[in-house]
Design goal:
Layout (H helix, E strand, L loop, with lengths): L3 E10 L2 E11 L4 E5 L6 H9 L6 E6 L2 E2 L10 E4 L11 H11 L4 H14 L15 H13 L5 E5 L7 H18 L2 E6 L2 H7 L2 E6 L2 E6 L1 H6 L4 H6 L4 E7 L8 E4 L4 E3 L8 E7 L5 E3 L9 E12 L3 E7 L5 E7 L11 E6 L5 E3 L2
Parallel strand pairs: 3-8, 3-9, 6-7, 7-8
Antiparallel strand pairs: 1-2, 1-4, 4-5, 9-10, 11-12, 11-14, 12-13, 14-20, 15-19, 16-17, 16-19, 17-18
Helix pairs in contact: 2-3, 2-4, 3-4
This protein binds adenosine-5'-triphosphate and magnesium ion (MG).
């Protein structure tokens, strides 16, 4: 399977800069996630990789070969489109078999491959149905099957699960991961859904306004986001504004907007305005200051509660303009209520300084 090298790709649509000098190296057999808000250039980058769009600048290498100007059908890629792009008047079989027929494989082989791939996506025996008679989620799985059946070296998936319900989404994403790993297909997976990206991708690329902001493993992206945007985009976060003052002497003291001081780890001895990121699950909530288990202990009042079954989120106002979100998993011994006075604490090592 191919290693993919995206080198300084830039793509304009007229005056619109959709992809801005993007470089990503994708290892053989790796599953890379492209994650970013609507309009940040994910689909455009995928289309450049598949050959449906020509970039204005930059090159794409697959397996060491420059494919930048190669037409889509000559590339070792399969693209699963965001909007399925199925042939509505054709049957499920005809849709999935399309690429195999173009390749002029024997009919017997085509039937076998189509049957097998329908088993993989759990839609056995519907070969003769017209795709227009299928639900949105089923059509999405047919589009996925059409890509997978070609056994591509590089699989490009543009939001392949966006029309599935929550349970099927999880099942199908695990399916994709299993197939992808068992066949060793180098894959690029576009998604809006951060949980999806964290759960199945080997590495995640965070995109914004056509640019790459950060590339890293799910643990790196979640644990050490390098920008406010990445911190906020992935997972739930508390991003507190404040500063580190030179005359404070201790560079590990962070002063919140409200003037309250908290301890952080400031290895680079940075001074100036910054943000501190604390994930809700790293905050301990207590009803007395003596129960604050960590160095930082801040008083506040619960102003909002979100109960989600397995987890409850408490938003705590620590000043007029500052709130901190904390989460309690499972059943809590204590029932907290809106208006309740509480104390929040967290380790200084769980308070990540974001200088941007
Ligand atoms: N054919 C086109 N002509 C002009 N501008 C386009 C065209 N296609 C996309 N764009 C613009 O390029 C930018 C990137 O679009 P793209 O479709 O790559 O975003 P995306 O990240 O895939 O978004 P989404 O998550 O909504 O699918 C957007 O500003 C979009 O409006
Ligand atoms: Mg898109």
């Amino acid at each position: 399977m191919s290693k993919v090298d995206i080198k300084n790709i830039t793509k304009y649509y007229g005056d619109v800069l959709a992809v801005d000098d993007v470089s990503i190296e994708i290892e053989k057999g790796e599953l890379i996630g492209l994650l970013g808000p609507s309009g940040c250039g994910k689909t455009t980058l995928l289309r450049v990789m598949s050959g449906f769009l020509e970039p204005n600048q930059g090159s794409i290498y697959m397996g060491g070969k420059d494919v930048t100007l190669m037409p889509p059908e000559k590339r070792p890629t399969s693209l699963v489109f965001q909007n399925y792009a199925l042939f509505p008047h054709l049957s499920v079989f005809e849709n999935i078999a399309f690429g195999l027929k173009v390749k002029k494989l024997p009919m017997e082989q085509i039937r076998k491959d189509v049957k097998e791939i329908l088993e993989v996506i759990d839609l056995q025996g519907i070969e003769e149905r017209s795709v227009s008679q299928l639900s949105g989620g089923q059509q999405q799985r047919i589009a996925l099957a059409r890509g997978l059946v070609m056994k591509p070296e590089v699989l490009l998936l543009d939001e392949p699960l966006c029309n599935l319900d929550a349970k099927l989404r999880v099942e199908t994403r695990d399916h994709i991961k299993r197939i992808q790993k068992s066949l060793g297909i180098t894959s690029v997976f576009v998604t809006h859904d951060q949980e999806e990206a964290l759960s199945i991708c080997d590495r995640i690329v965070i995109m914004k306004d056509g640019k790459v902001l950060q590339i890293g493993t799910p643990e790196e992206i979640y644990g050490q986001p390098t920008s406010k945007f990445a911190a906020d985009f992935i997972g739930k976060s508390n991003l507190l504004n404040g500063r580190i003052e030179k005359d404070e002497k201790d560079p590990n003291v962070f002063i919140l907007e409200s003037g309250q001081k908290v301890k952080i780890e400031n290895e680079d001895q940075y001074f100036g305005n910054a943000n501190v990121l604390i994930r809700p699950e790293n905050i301990v909530i207590a009803d007395e200051p003596e129960k604050c288990s960590e160095v930082n202990c801040i008083e506040g009042e619960i102003d909002y509660i979100t109960y989600l079954g397995e987890v409850t989120y408490y938003r705590v106002a620590i000043s007029k303009n500052e709130q901190i979100l904390t989460s309690v998993y499972g059943k809590s011994d204590k029932i907290w209520e809106i208006g309740g006075k509480v104390f929040l604490s967290w380790k200084s090592t769980d308070a990540l300084l974001i200088k941007e």
